[in-house]
Amino acid sequence: MRGAKSRLVLGVVLVGALAGILNIPAPLLAQSPDLLVEIPFNFHVGDKMLPSGTYTIHLQGEAIKISDFRGNSAFVMSNAVSNSAAKLENQLIFTRYGQENYLSQVYWLGYPTGRGTLKTSSEIQLAKQFSGQNTLSAGLKK
Predict the structure, then answer these.
(1) What is the C-alpha separation between 32 and 35, in angstroms, rounded?
(2) Whether the Cβ atoms of residue 34 and residue 27 lie closer than 8 Å to each other
(3) Which pLDDT tens digit goes with each residue over 15-41?
(4) What is the spatial distance between Cα 113 and Cα 8, in angstroms, rounded to a whole number?
(5) 3-state class of 38 per DSSP?
(6) 37 bridge partner residues
(7) 3-state helix, strand, coil in the chain (%, to 5)
(8) 35-39 and 53-60: which strand pairing?
């Protein structure tokens, strides 16, 4: 049994390494599709501020990568969150503190869990200042 478990772990490591070398998109390995979304406002992903525009969302292990065709991109670590609307639609949820928008959750149609982003220290500070936070969603293109 120990040998089989070691082979399984080695196989997972090799698949991950080959994916990086061969540039296979991580969502194929994670079995969640890329999302294409039009975001009409500037927003934060982790500590990085991104301009409004059309972005692709990739799930790469525990991290969410968001990038556009102009070279803007960011990574943020995430945790699994329940997707109660799994049968309804893909969703990208932002939390607004004053005029600052932070990516907070990503949901994929048909998946029982989505991903919730980990808050940065700057977002935690803003959350303390703004008790009346708003949530926003962005229009998904596919």
Answers:
(1) 9
(2) yes
(3) 333 334 444 433 333 457 899 999 999
(4) 24
(5) strand
(6) 55, 140
(7) 25, 45, 30
(8) antiparallel
